[in-house]
Amino acid sequence: MPRFLALFAVLGLFVVAKPALGQSADPVHWVNPLMGTDSKPELSHGNTYPAIALPWGMNFWMPQTGKMGSGWAYQYSADKIRGFKQTHQPSPWMNDYGQFALMPITGKLRFEEDERASWFSHKAETATPYYYSVYLADHNVTTEIAPTERAARFRFTFPKTDSAYVVLDALDRGSYVKLLPQQNKIIGYTTRNSKGVPANFKNYFVLEFDHPFTSTTIYQDKKLDASGLEAQANHTGAVVGFRTRKGEQVNVRVASSFISAEQAEINLREIGQDDFEAVKQKARQAWNQQLSRIQVEGGSDDQLRTFYSCLYRSLLFPRKFYELDAAGKPVHYSPYNGQVLPGYLYTDTGFWDTFRALFPFLNLMYPSVNAQIQEGLVNAYQEGGWLPEWGSPGYRNIMIGNNSASVVADAYLKGVRGYDINKLYEALIHGANNAGPMDAVGRAGVAYYNKLGYVPYDVKINENAARTLEYAYDDFTIYQLGKALGRPQKEINVYAKRSQNYRNLFDKQTGLMRGKNQNGKFQTPFNPFKWGDAFTEGNSWHYTWSVFHDVQGLMDLMGGRNKFVSTLDTVFTLAPVFDESYYGEVIHEIREMQIANMGNYAHGNQPIQHMVYLYNYAGQPWKTQYWAREVLNRLYQPTPDGYCGDEDNGQTSAWYVFSALGFYPVCPGTDQYVLGAPLFKKVTLNLENGKQVVLSAPNNSAENRYIQSLTVNGQAYNQNWLSHKELMQGATLDFNMAPTPNTSRGTSQEAAPYSFSKPRR
Predict the structure, then answer these.
(1) CA-CA distance, 238 to 226, in Å (whole number)?
(2) CA distances from 172 to 192, 193, 233 (A)
(3) Dist CA 468 CA 443 (whole Å)
(4) How far apart are CA 404 and CA 400, in angstroms?
(5) Could you tell me which residues come within 8 angstroms of residue 659 by beta carbon, excluding any fewer than 6 positions away?
(6) Helix then strand then coil, % of the chain, to nearest 5
(7) Which of 159, 155, 165 is nearest to 105 (CA)?
(8) Residue spans per domain, the chain
(9) Would you tell me how many other CB atoms lie within 10 Å of the CB of residue 21?
(10) What is the 3-state secondary structure (H, E, C) of 62-97?
(11) Of 476, 409, 758, which Cα lies nearest the Cα of 617?
């Protein structure tokens, strides 16, 4: 190569190179929405899809590779795209609701998803949170999407043809379409859902094209009709045609509403007169505004990509389920009673997962968003009579626990305000003392729990030991909230006492938690490696640690610090053996534990994710520092196979975000975060109140993973926890990192984080 060409080549590399780490004012640049998309029912690497959306947006968009109705709607290993779907799917296991799809095609007019599908390549695909583009090879068309919260712009670039079409698929299970050629418009609705909705549920949509239609065709239950303009049936759709020059772009503005067709038109105003590029840039700005609340410096490219990809996932759910009326006031269709009512509502989250880290993360970094979520919970309770434990969009009968108590209590105790907390406290008391209309609402087995102090193994209530442990923790959070609200001591003492019910399931013989029969005897035979049965998507080795609020009490039951640490160590040194007989097959959560090469530690599912932080309670914080870094390094990558199990609505991502900062909320409902060790050389948290928290570790590296010393605001700090209240006042934390543990720091009883059995602060 001539020397001057080589020089220009080098200069070109500098032009397109990514910004220096820590200097990018555009953190969305680092996000990979394809992280976790290489998943399938047998093995999850995240079970995610590329969500093209705004933070907490009501509508997401995604390329659809799976068949209509498949929860695995986008899989990285797929070769074909069937359409571009408006989605509200929180996970493939929950599936979708209110979905419909668009698809550009050329050549023969066709509608069926297999016939319209096109081969594509990831080499011709661009995925960002605010913009998606892909080349559809079979149609010689490029599709681009840019979102708003409740609307989106599409741009289809066609070849020269008189047979260019856009397919609208309103899907089956009840839908309606109407063509309005004079207005270049399609309107309609879809009723497709996966339960959790009233009988009158509809998602109304409106599509406005910037080109006149050269042909119109209605689809109705397997039949195409070129003479009709309207159809209502099980499965409807429409195909509109255009004549295009080479490179001609057909633009479509799309919006939807759960309230009405008229509200869908109002939601279309989010786009206004903005062209495609303006919508795209506003969406990019919206993401940068939220992502830049955390600035990280001094890591590798992959660490930065992983961090911001996880932060992106932490800002998607729960999604907005409210809309803004003509006056700009929040209003929502209630999935609890089918009425249209004023106020906020959020949905698509399972508290069994997200109480652990996602909601504490919102309380730290985005409290105003969680204030709206809490107001929405007030509305949910008033409209449905119960707090949801898994909402999508209404009550869903899945998972266990009464963890709305944690979500409500932690928000208030962390200073979130602006909603009726007394109404929510009433909701918590109601949920804690009653069995709901389904097992996953209220408390299944509540009569046994309140009488015996546990849910028995032999009364045909599944996952009874897990329920007992979670109810006990939830009772602790109710006690904490009641205390903060000044409730009568006699009233809250009930929940303080019940918070100790975990003790009833501790088996001194095995040193683990174990199901117990109604007669007070432990269930037999007992296999601590048995998944399910008395536990939920885990075994006794995983659930034994679910005493978030009283780790000292658990430690005492085990026989003290040394035995406690030894048992923690054993989780990692055990072979990844398992007993899947309860399920009759090896479920994907088991397989993900097995292949991780971390013993019986199952980070891919939530019950054990806090476990690595428990060494801090027993005076060996360096083991937390070691294992937290191991999990960060080994089980997360910014790649399609980047997670080690289900991402689960931001929870597994929030674990990474917190742990990369260097602390984690082991016990929501207290003021404390438990220390780990920072991943980056410097992190700046730009708090919503205008204060900053700066975490500085200039000598951090792959080798220097241990905290040698720590100062907070210039003062030596030897505790194994941080105070939320003190962080919210702004703080500077200086970590001196080293390649070997400091086995004298954080070893005292006084350095341990909060436990109910040893209360302070």
Answers:
(1) 10
(2) 7, 10, 8
(3) 10
(4) 11
(5) 628, 631, 632, 676, 679
(6) 30, 25, 45
(7) 165
(8) 50-292, 301-339+346-751
(9) 17
(10) EEECCCCCCCCCCCCCCCEECEEEEECCCCCCCCCC
(11) 758
- Per the CB < 8 A criterion, the answer to whether 48 and 36 are in contact is yes
* Cα four-point dihedral sign 436, 441, 442, 445: positive
Distances (CA, A) of 592 to 75, 178, 244, 351, 640: 18, 47, 49, 22, 15
pLDDT tens by residue, 535-546? 999 999 999 999
DSSP SS3 for 370: helix
Give the bridge partners for 40, in sequence order.
Answer: 43
**Segment holding 627, helix H or strand E:** helix 621-634
DSSP H or E stretch at residue 587: none
Q: Residue 246's closest CA among 160, 140, 162, 161? A: 160
Contact at 8 Å (CB) between 22 and 297?
A: yes
102: β partners: 84, 168
528 within 8 A of 507, measured Cβ to Cβ: no
Residue type, 451: K
Yes or no: say if 68 and 113 are a contact pair by the CB < 8 Å rule: yes
Q: How far apart are CA 478 and CA 19, in angstroms?
A: 47
Least Cα distance to 148 among 278, 291, 309, 334 occurs for 278
DSSP annotation string for 207-224: EEESS--SEEEEEETTEE
What mean pLDDT value characterizes the chain? 96
Condensed to tens digits (0 to 9), the pLDDT of residues 241-300 reads: 999 999 999 999 999 999 999 999 999 999 999 999 999 999 999 999 999 999 999 999
Question: What distance in Å separates the CA atoms of residue 348 and residue 552, rounded to the nearest whole number?
Answer: 35
One-letter amino acid at 12 equals G
Element spanning 35, H or E? none
Name residues whose C-beta falls within 8 Å of residue 124's C-beta, 6 or more positions apart in sequence. Answer: 134, 135, 137
- Same CATH fold assignment for domains 50-292 and 301-339+346-751: no
pLDDT by residue (tens digit) across 638-675?
999 999 999 999 999 999 999 999 999 999 999 999 99
The CATH number that domain 301-339+346-751 falls under is 3.30.2080.10
Residues 96, 128 contacting (CB under 8 angstroms): no
* CATH architecture group of domain 50-292: Distorted Sandwich (2.70)
Residues whose CB is less than 8 angstroms from the CB of residue 523 and which lie 6 or more positions away in sequence, other chains included? 457, 458, 514, 515, 516, 517, 534
Condensed to tens digits (0 to 9), the pLDDT of residues 189-223 reads: 999 999 999 999 999 999 999 999 999 999 999 99
611 vs 209: CA distance, rounded Å: 53
